Amino acid sequence: MSTAVLTDSTACLPPELAEEAGVALIPLHVQVGRRSLAEGVDISTAEVVDLLRAGKEKVGTSRPAPGEFVERFREVAHATGADSIVAVLISSAISGTVEAAQLAAQAVRSEVAVEVVDSQILGMGMGYAAAAAADAAYAGGSPEQVASVARARCGATSTYFYVDTLEHLRRGGRVGTAQAILGSALAIKPLLMLSDGEVQLAERVRTRAKALARLEEKCLEAIAAASEDVVVDVAVHHLGWLEQAEAMRDRLRETVPQAGRLDLVELGAVAGVHTGPGTLAVTVAPRA
């Protein structure tokens, strides 16, 4: 294989799916006090949930340093024998990960060619895109073709999510302060989405029950909007809300039996820092 595919840990790719697809991973970091912990290596999602619920330590996140990308690019090239790498990474509007990867790509350009794809999303939408890109690479696609597959899949993906509180997003600067205060003051339960690479308000809903119902409806609308001959993969994400996620997955399985993959995936530690416990999200990813 001349082209390898790498994504970051915010893709939330289950290890077995990453291995099956042949996608390499690089972790982002959770900052706990003065400690920097690699997501999925030094700290788990469950540990982040406990930290956030306890509220005793300052918890934040950070991108991989360019040097970490340099090391990982070299490792992937050596392990796979690839002479090029397509890196499908978290939206540049949310994280500086793309910038770090681009700096690293310049540093290793004499050893391996790296094409950096700004996914404009995160979560399993990015994971599905990375897996599709890996399939294209195994089929002999050029780096440009592999990157194009990833961009097309990301661009066709819809992601909606509900959070019990906007406070974590506000603290991390991932949603406007005024908007967060407005939602809190009026006891509104916001339904959010990823659009143009950023977290944006999709709808204001009065109660949690109505917000969750609208979340499911948004998922069904996104599936219905896909062409009839296109297979659609769906992921239900959660953070500290397994029962609610399982219930939604089961209802979707009955409602859209024609869907491709239907995955139940715990939200990663890094994304979880910014959304907080009580998060439910749906990703709809047509295989266009």
Characterize this entry briefly.
Keywords: Lipid-binding. The protein has 288 residues and is of the alpha/beta class.
Characterise the protein shown here.
- This protein has 288 residues and is of the alpha/beta class.
- It folds into 2 domains: 3-28 and 63-155, Dihydroxyacetone kinase, domain 1 (Rossmann fold, 3-Layer(aba) Sandwich), CATH 3.40.50; 158-286, Hypothetical Protein Tm841, Chain: A,domain 3, CATH 3.30.1180.
- Helix content is 43%, strand content 26%.
- It contains 11 helices and 13 strands.
- The chain has helices at residues 15-21, 45-54, 66-80, 97-107, 124-138, 143-155, 167-171, 177-185, 208-225, 242-255, 269-275, and strands at residues 3-8, 23-26, 29-32, 35-38, 59-62, 84-89, 113-118, 158-163, 189-195, 198-205, 232-239, 262-266, 279-286.
- A 6-stranded mixed β-sheet has the order 10-9-8-13-11-12, sandwiched between helices. The protein has a 4-stranded parallel β-sheet with strand order 2-1-6-7, with helices on both faces.
- Pfam families: DegV (PF02645).
- Keywords: Lipid-binding.
- This is DegV family protein.
Helix % is: 40-55%
Biggest sheet overview: 6 strands, mixed
Q: What's the CATH topology name of the largest domain?
A: Hypothetical Protein Tm841, Chain: A,domain 3
Number of individual domains:
2
CATH class of the largest domain: Alpha Beta
Mean pLDDT: 92
Number of helices: 11
| Global outline | globular
- What is the beta-strand fraction? 25-35%
Main β-sheet, spatial strand arrangement: 10-9-8-13-11-12
Helix/strand/pairing category: alpha/beta
Question: Nearest-angstrom radius of gyration?
Answer: 18 Å
